[in-house]
Amino acid sequence: MTRFTVNNQPVEYRLDPDTPLLWALRDASNLTGTKYGCGTGQCGACIVDVDGRAVPSCRMTIAEAEGTYVTTIEGLSRERNHPLQLAFIAENVSQCGYCIPGFIMAASVLLRKDADPSEEAIRSTLTNLCRCGIYPRVVEAVQRAGRALRGEEVIPAGARPGIDPADAARVVPALVPPAR
């Protein structure tokens, strides 16, 4: 049995110790924000924070994670109001969105070490791949989140994801046929 902490919750996995962390998070813990991309650690879609390091979870086994603290995109902020999340929304970074959790997790590690990173530092640290080409907006979002973390800017909260159930379906009286 492998034990470590995921999003501030102690977890014990009854999986083969050679199971990649990615699959333990996605399949056993239902933390599907961490994405499978290449399986070789090159694309960055599966990056999580392991003890303050940006780690491709497809390349780390749960045995290697024993005793660590792992933070996934779901654990970054329960309310989805981390400055990086708000900045990515405000800067319209997301297109297809597949790579976004990995970018945000890698950027959160960077900003914890350097709250005022240069464009060069961001580009050299965030080597994640994005087929949509969002790189310039990622740089802007990370710098904006840094300003928010330093108290120089307040990023307004975007709309909450999802649909309010009250707005999902309404009966429109003019469209309801009369009762017989």
From TrEMBL:
Keyword terms of this UniProt record: 2Fe-2S, Iron, Iron-sulfur, Metal-binding, Oxidoreductase
Domain 2Fe-2S ferredoxin-type: residue ranges: 1-76
Pfam families according to UniProt: Fer2 (PF00111), Fer2_2 (PF01799)
Natural source organism: Sphingomonas jinjuensis
Class of this enzyme: oxidoreductase
Keyword Metal-binding: yes
Entry's EC annotation: 1.3.99.16
The keyword Aminoacyl-tRNA synthetase belongs to this UniProt entry's keyword annotation: no
InterPro entries referenced in this protein's UniProt entry, alphabetically: 2Fe-2S-bd, 2Fe-2S-bd_dom_sf, 2Fe-2S_ferredoxin-like_sf, 2Fe-2S_ferredoxin-type, 2Fe2S_fd_BS, Beta-grasp_dom_sf, Diverse_Oxidoreductases
PROSITE patterns to which the protein is assigned, alphabetical: 2FE2S_FER_1 (PS00197), 2FE2S_FER_2 (PS51085)
Gene Ontology MF term list: 2 iron, 2 sulfur cluster binding; isoquinoline 1-oxidoreductase activity; metal ion binding
Record-given protein name: Isoquinoline 1-oxidoreductase alpha subunit
Top-level taxon of origin: Bacteria
